[in-house]
Design goal:
The protein has 225 residues and is of the alpha/beta class. It has helices at 3-15, 17-38, 69-77, 97-102, 117-130, 167-183, 198-202, and strands at residues 87-91, 109-114, 140-144, 157-162, 188-193, 207-213, 216-221.
């Protein structure tokens, strides 16, 4: 079977009724298998009303769900960058699965921003457990902080967001990106998973679209006209 026929078959499977019914259970199964293999806890999915969060922005947060490993690697492998120059920052990092996946790449540093103390503490335990495994980046941390007030490091960065906020909070975070990049222009990329508010990045004067897939978009910071 040639590659075009294979691609059409895969697309037909994704669009099938059975696949759509099983997509959630399959996603969860992959997550539990990841945890079992790596000796960490990044499951189950969690809604914020189940957590104690001392922040007025709690109502604007999304559901925590761990990033799907294979799709994450597909997106990362598409980036044409020198990873060693970049700081990977996950906004709404939850239990930290994306941080662990990012450690397979030689980033200069990896940081997760999470405003739930409970999820942040789980992420810290996961990072400690993962230190015993071979990885390309060993500088990982989870920071318990609100993403809207986080001071962006003034260095080349990859900003990662798995649809962690409602539209209002997204606007606030993007304005923070815009201010920081205007004050200190630098290389920056946004990876936005499940990009339901992607128009906010498309319309931002600080970014331009770079790539798009079935469940993600990538934007790059403008460096002058």
């Amino acid at each position: 079977m040639n590659s075009s026929n294979t691609s059409r078959m895969r697309e037909a499977i994704r669009e099938s009724f059975i696949y759509k019914r099983l997509q959630g259970p399959i996603f969860n199964l992959k997550g539990y298998m990841f945890d079992l293999y790596h000796g960490v806890k990044t499951m189950p999915q969690v809604t914020l009303d189940e957590l104690e969060i001392d922040s007025p922005n709690k109502k604007g947060g999304g559901i925590y769900a761990g990033t799907e490993p294979k799709y994450f690697r597909t997106v990362m492998d598409s980036l044409d960058i020198d990873f060693s120059r970049f700081h990977f920052i996950d906004f709404g990092s939850g239990m930290g699965r994306a941080l662990l996946l990012a450690a397979d790449y030689p980033f200069r540093k990896i940081t997760g921003i999470e405003f739930s103390t409970e999820l942040h503490e789980i992420a810290e335990k996961n990072i400690r457990s993962y230190t015993r495994r071979k990885r390309a980046c060993n500088d990982l941390e989870s920071v318990c902080e609100d993403a809207t007030t986080y001071a962006l490091p003034r260095e080349p960065s990859v900003y990662y967001l798995f649809n962690p906020f409602n539209r209002e909070l997204f606007g606030s975070v993007i304005r923070s990106f815009e201010r920081s990049l205007a004050e200190d222009p630098r290389d920056a990329y946004v990876i936005y998973m499940n990009p339901v508010n992607d128009d906010l990045f498309v319309d931002s004067p600080a970014f331009e679209p770079l790539d798009r897939g079935p469940w993600h978009s990538v934007h790059v910071a403008r460096r002058g006209e």
